[in-house]
Amino acid sequence: MNIVQCTYCKKPFTSLGGRICPACNEQIDKDFITVRDYIYEHKHSNIDRIAKETEVSKQIIIHLLKEGRLIIDSPDGDGMLTCEMCKKPINTGRLCKDCTGKVSSSMDKNVTANKKPEEKPPEPNLKGTAKIS
Ligand SMILES: [Zn+2]
Ligand SMILES: [Zn+2]
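# zinc ion complex -> structure
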């Protein structure tokens, strides 16, 4: 068993693997339904407005967005969430589509690129070549 600090209320609790205590988990589930219903009716919203009108903490809304449980259909992203690699605004998850593609293709490469790069033989020194004038 593992005692960890809850990401939300900062209280230590016995974790079975998660970073959120049971009380907060319950709260997040409730908040999730509140926010989901709000977004359903107000499609083009942003985190600030949602937090104000639903009284759900921004931290929880961002958490739900990052987990991909919520998607805010915001035209410009409102700077709510940014891709963790290229910092482009995104509506859900942690990476934009481009970077998700890059990450999965670089993971494929890593499997084969584990070998050390072969050392190149030293370049022949051409500086000492005599000039014929
Ligand atoms: Zn907690
Ligand atoms: Zn990106």
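# post-check
Strands lie at 2-5, 12-15, 81-82, 89-90.
Residues 108 and 123 are 33 Å apart (CA to CA).
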